[in-house]
């Protein structure tokens, strides 16, 4: 049974989709004013693991937005004298490139905020009709005193609420639980604006997510995710706008990924510890190691991202890679060994239990390494058999379906995989030739591989190959 910690209640609760069949999930997507940093990607990788694990149990309808209009985008595009679409398009493309490198699956529906302006206007109209919203100057604000549950998600002390005080910014601190802006009148003529029945302007950031989530998923979502910094004000405001109109719970489960620190410090451009995925790849770190490090700590725990940790992640992946190579190329007797069969079953049980326990990825990963250890011992003792190999490889592909960390499909197409298989079969043939003391044949294969840029090394662990 899957348990997830619901920020609304603070408790780990059993989860099943409301209709028993399809999980309706909304995840707050990137604001495309810059390249996403690894703190952002911690949240996106967590959501990807969640999505993959949910998919192993139910169908899923996963919607993610692209915030392509907000304060920052308006400011930055104006500074460069660019239309907002022209400004945001390259960052949107970069986000999906980065996500693909991290093997983050695409959500089923991707919604750009500027494609849902009519839905946002409708929501504001309803809020005005119900008295939850009011006009001040040329903007429309949400009246938080009209929504008694305001502050429940972020556990604001109700006494902190400043009745009648207003805030215009898309992002603000918890000390400012004020009436927030739903629709902003333009500051100048050049600013991007749309004409609504209640005036010319553009949507506030919080309004965007409520309108798109309800349009695509209905009035009550199963799961809404984001990072902890989204809890206030963003998600608190999403709840207020949505529930004030529908009188239904906006989301049954709220899940939030904790902060990421870099070398024990808050990541910031001024400290020089600010990393985008691109920076790290340019420095020679591998995307698969970055993904591994990001998911190796359970999402609700703070993650300290360090270069030493990244190197450790690279070594962990190397261990998996070496094991899979040894397993695939070993000469095995037919049949199965009960101890190995049991070890595979135990690994599978632990892995599933770990992910079911609020996505405890660290516990799930430990199952992978326990099985590697047990299998290596069995290989050393020549106790691992053909059917054991099949069972282990099949379980590893399940693991990869869930965590997407194994080298089997790393950043490469099917064509590369075929080439690898061909190389491995040549390596096997060469080893057979050597065992039969047919050194002419073995040398010929080695040279053939060398011509293709493949170097073979004979080690205690067996024959390894790498590209020149
Ligand atoms: Zn959002």
Summarize the structure.
With 468 residues, this protein is an alpha/beta fold. It is built from 14 helices and 18 strands.
Walk me through what this model shows.
- This protein is 46% helix and 18% strand.
- Helix 6 (231-246) links the parallel strand 12 and strand 13 (251-257).
- Helix 5 (205-217) crosses helix 6.
- It is α/β, with parallel strands linked by helices.
- The chain contains 14 helices and 18 strands.
- The longest helix has 23 residues, at 307-329.
- Strands 6, 7, 8, 9, 10 and 11 form a six-stranded mixed beta sheet that branches. The protein has a five-stranded parallel beta sheet with strand order 5-4-3-12-13, sandwiched between helices.
- Bound molecules: zinc ion.
- Zinc ion binds at residues 28, 209, 234.
Given helix and strand content, the structural type is alpha/beta
Shape designation = elongated
Query: In whole angstroms, how far apart are the ends?
Result: 48 Å
How much is the average pLDDT?
92
Number of contiguous helices: 14
Catalogue the unreliable spans: none
Largest beta-sheet characterization: 6 strands, mixed
Please report the total strand number as a whole number: 18
Ligand identities? zinc ion
Radius of gyration: 26 Å
Q: Could you estimate the helical fraction of the residues in percent? A: 40-55%
Strand content: 15-25%
Q: Which descriptors would you attach to this protein?
A:
binds zinc ion; six-stranded mixed sheet; alpha/beta; 468 residues; five-stranded parallel sheet; 18 strands
């Amino acid at each position: 049974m899957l348990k997830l910690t619901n920020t609304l209640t603070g408790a780990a609760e059993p989860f099943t989709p409301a209709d028993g069949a399809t999980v309706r999930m909304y995840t707050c997507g990137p604001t495309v004013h810059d390249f996403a940093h690894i703190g952002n990607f911690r949240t996106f990788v967590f959501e990807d693991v969640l999505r993959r694990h949910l998919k192993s149990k139910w169908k899923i309808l996963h919607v993610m937005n692209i915030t392509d209009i907000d304060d920052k985008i308006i400011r930055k595009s104006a500074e460069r004298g660019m239309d907002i679409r022209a400004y945001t398009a390259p960052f949107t493309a970069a986000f999906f490139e980065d996500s693909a490198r991290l093997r983050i699956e695409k959500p089923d529906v991707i919604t750009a905020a500027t494609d849902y302006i009519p839905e946002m206007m409708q929501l504001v109209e309803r809020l005005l009709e119900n008295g939850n919203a009011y006009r001040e100057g040329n903007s429309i604000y949400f009246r938080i005193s009209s929504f008694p549950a305001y502050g429940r998600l972020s556990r604001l002390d109700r006494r902190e609420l400043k009745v009648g005080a207003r805030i215009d910014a898309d992002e603000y601190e918890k000390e400012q639980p004020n009436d927030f802006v739903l629709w902003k009148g333009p500051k100048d003529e050049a600013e991007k604006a749309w004409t609504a029945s209640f005036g010319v302007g553009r949507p506030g950031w919080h309004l965007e997510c409520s309108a798109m989530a309800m349009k695509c998923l209905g009035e009550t979502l199963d799961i809404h995710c984001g990072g902890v910094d989204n809890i206030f004000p963003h998600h608190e405001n999403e709840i207020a706008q949505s529930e004030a109109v529908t009188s239904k719970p906006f989301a049954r489960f709220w899940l939030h990924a904790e902060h990421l620190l870099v070398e024990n410090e808050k990541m910031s451009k001024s400290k020089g510890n600010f990393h985008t995925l691109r920076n790290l790849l340019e420095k020679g770190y591998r995307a698969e190691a970055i993904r591994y490090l990001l998911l190796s700590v359970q999402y609700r725990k703070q993650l300290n991202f360090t270069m030493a940790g990244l190197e450790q992640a690279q070594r962990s992946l190397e261990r998996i890679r070496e094991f899979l190579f040894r397993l695939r190329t070993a000469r095995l007797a037919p049949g199965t060994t009960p101890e190995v069969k049991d070890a595979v079953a135990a690994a599978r049980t632990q892995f599933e239990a770990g992910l079911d326990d609020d996505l405890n990825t660290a516990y799930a990963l430990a199952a992978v390494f326990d099985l590697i250890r047990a299998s290596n011992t069995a290989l050393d003792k020549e106790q691992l058999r053909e059917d054991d190999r099949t069972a282990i490889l099949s379980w590893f592909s399940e693991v990869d379906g869930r965590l997407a960390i194994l080298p089997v499909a790393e950043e490469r197409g099917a064509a590369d995989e075929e080439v690898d298989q061909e190389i491995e079969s040549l390596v096997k043939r060469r080893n057979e030739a050597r065992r039969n003391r047919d050194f002419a044949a073995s040398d010929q294969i080695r040279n053939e591989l060398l011509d293709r840029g493949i170097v073979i090394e004979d080690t205690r662990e067996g024959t390894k190959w790498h590209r020149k």
